[in-house]
């Protein structure tokens, strides 16, 4: 999920008719990898229900919907930035949202399209970046989950997101804090000891503190209305929300004043 | 809203119907819920057996809106007596008595006749929009994004998940290649309903006789339901006896404390066994109730264990679907399995230990267990803990068993 545009992006983008069989097999394998809860993406699958719940609950509060409704996001336009193979896009589509998933990796987008097709879900997947999107597009919900720590320019990235947020819309972001603890857990433990993530997945100096995030958002007239740490408990093998925002954390931002 | 894939439940007894109802209430009309079972053609059920419903499960039925339907025919167990004796003993010393309330006004268990409860579940499920199909599941073809379920009437259903609630000899479990681990007890349980002259005052009795437990469970209207354990050969002999001879065997064990007694239906013997499925899940398949496990009836926990599966699976599925997650996805099913399989093994182990401890004639074991029971009887906190355990109120409780709606 890197946010630097992939140079191969436009060449192999998924206009299915022109993609050859070997390519389709490659994407289908990639899509299986993404969607296998016991495979390479296992850590993401483990944390996914918690992310879904945090986002759904924030949206339901903001748009006054019931979390018990299977259609709680109906008629809401949702943008998922860095969507990968659609682990957030598919669930939110089922809950009624009109979902646009963007990712700079053409192969991720192809994998996402293949999977959505099998699940009979209609999702607008685009191989692009926020910077390259039409500035006139507007969304009720914008998601930047595990993305800001990968972008080249956090300020610019958040400016563009804020510009596409409808008045009364919400933005949800998750990332890694920058301190000694996030270095120990987010890099040393996750990439070297537990090997949840490939080495080099994260660069610690690109991690973003909640204060930095808040400052960028504030400049765009957005305030953080909710924030929560996300912690892993090894005994229960379970992620949960916590007031401890030292390593992984999520925020909800909306227009203030 | 587009209608999502169905959830198909194979088996229309307690577990299957309760699950269907719980899912329907938790998910609403967006996810079609289908129960398939040829036995649904023979409604109302004529099952002559009765079942002990412990407090946690009564709360589940109350939350599902079926308890009121059966409350009038349910007999609360107001207290319970446990004795340890040989068959020829003239008096049976009491080692343990429970006055059975988990909360003031809430008995730790009720005796309910199966036919009433099954009909209440079926009609409620139907009224709330569960599709009841009086036909068998003949095939389940897993494909990307779901499972195609074929029924004996020739139709097919595109489902996200198939649930095997098809009993101890589950065909679906077998077809999925899930092995079971367990053994046969050289015991059968004789089940018979007995009428008696005097009122039982809501008292349940469990006599640990050398051949195994002999339980007298109170029903409404001066009747009791018996679970009477014997060696398999003896059980077969006893149920085949002529009426008068059977009566003599019955009276020797039942005693005369409730006056004259009379068997009200034909006694039937069920061979006892124990097993736990090696896995409670497979691709797009989850096992619940007897399909997943059968335990010794010594502590009356079999159905309760099954209803705990139902409550846990319903909660897991409803929580997933409300997050837009495909409920047949492997990690969702894994969550259910983790929640239930350990608890089931623990209960299987406990009931097996009880049976080994009590179903024998060893004088040494007898004094050990009597001292143990005597101690428990004199220690209120310990006794209380046993009652709560027996009432199903321990462990990580699914919301439905706490009486909370999903």
From TrEMBL, chain A:
Residues 1-20 are annotated as: Disordered. Pathway: Cofactor biosynthesis; ubiquinone biosynthesis. Coiled coil: none annotated. SUPFAM superfamilies: S-adenosyl-L-methionine-dependent methyltransferases. It comes from the Bacteria. Pfam families: Methyltransf_23. GO terms for biological process: methylation. The keyword Methyltransferase applies. Its EC number is 2.1.1.222, 2.1.1.64. PANTHER family: METHYLTRANSFERASE, UBIQUINONE BIOSYNTHESIS O-METHYLTRANSFERASE, MITOCHONDRIAL. O-methyltransferase that catalyzes the 2 O-methylation steps in the ubiquinone biosynthetic pathway. Belongs to the methyltransferase superfamily. UbiG/COQ3 family. This is Ubiquinone biosynthesis O-methyltransferase. It comes from Nitrobacter vulgaris. The lineage of its organism: Bacteria, Pseudomonadati, Pseudomonadota, Alphaproteobacteria, Hyphomicrobiales.
TrEMBL record, chain B:
It comes from the Bacteria. It holds the Pfam family FAD_binding_3. GO terms for biological process: ubiquinone biosynthetic process. Coiled coil: none annotated. The keyword Hydrolase does not apply. The keyword Transcription regulation does not apply. InterPro entries: FAD-bd, FAD/NAD-bd_sf, Ubi_Hdrlase_CS, UbiH/COQ6, UbiH/COQ6_monooxygenase. Keywords: FAD, Flavoprotein, Monooxygenase, Oxidoreductase. Residues 7-341 form the FAD-binding domain. Pathway: Cofactor biosynthesis; ubiquinone biosynthesis. Gene3D superfamilies: FAD/NAD(P)-binding domain. GO terms for cellular component: ubiquinone biosynthesis complex. Its cofactor is FAD. Belongs to the UbiH/COQ6 family. This is 2-octaprenyl-6-methoxyphenyl hydroxylase. It comes from Nitrobacter vulgaris.
